[in-house]
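We modelled the chain as a single entity of 335 amino acids. Its sequence is:
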Amino acid sequence: MPDIGFRFEAIRPGANTRPFTPTVAGTMSFDLTREVPRTITGVIAPPDQWAVIDVRTDQIKAYLIVDGTDYPMGFFAFTELTRQKDVVLDEAGDPADMISTGLGDRCTLLIRNTGAAQTILPAFDPSQEMITILSNSGLPYAVAGAANLSITSITWDGSTTDLSKIKQLGTLAGHRPLWADNNGVLRSVASQVIDTEIIPLADLQPVASSVAITDRFLTAPNRVIVSDNSSPSYAIRGQWDAPASAPHSEANRGYVLTRLEELQGLGSGAHAENVAATIGEAYTARSLSARILPTSVLDGPQIISYDGANWLVTSWEVAMTPGADMSINAEELIP
């Protein structure tokens, strides 16, 4: 059994990094369906730890330590602070305060807006529009995917945040949701594509008797229809059907269960079909859960293999304390 632990650093722009040593390290989790996928909750520290931290500008870098080697686990911005009264006693036996904090990955820094409405005119490329927003943010990013030109427009009111815009554009681009990786790089990649190393679940050292597969054959949609009715002259429509090899396909189940999605900004029927396939990826009929040793390998929506199938890891959670397991959840990728 490896020696596993965690540590934090506080990073201020243009200044040296400083150790940050909370009394309670909290829990780190990743969920691709959340607005901010990676968060840390339940971090508690005494007031003297905050004396050298400016929560408005500083970020926290987290590390997983395995047998004395540090592995980065992401950059985090502060999202809240709570002063807890009478939590512990100081050396004189008097009640002492503790401060708890919540942190979110660098997607948190995109939850902002100018208050001004914006319209993107037809013939735009969603991937390029994502790149424009991310470039203006000053944050590191990597966006990969084919062009899908849109022939209708998108209008956002002044309350729409940069993160919400990117999420919407990512759907139009046929991408998996945006996430921040272990090095704090904001990433968006095409769905329905396996472009990373597939990791056997056995390599992640699952805890004995912890692997479970849940079947949703009767409830998972096997058809996704995407449409854009924003054009006054015609509608754009695309359809995805689960392949016959899928256990919840019409051929195997005997009937169709449809999910309908209305979107702005589609460019063609082929574009709509690509988006429908992306949405269909999230509604597979089988999911996998397991407990493994804490690892930095699951850096976002990583693909693992088990029981003759490939699975997309969509969420995980680990208590940042020595000896804790990491729980993971994954959805089957249907070829």
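As a brief sanity check on the tokenised model: The mean pLDDT is 89. The chain has three domains: 4-106, 118-189, 199-333.
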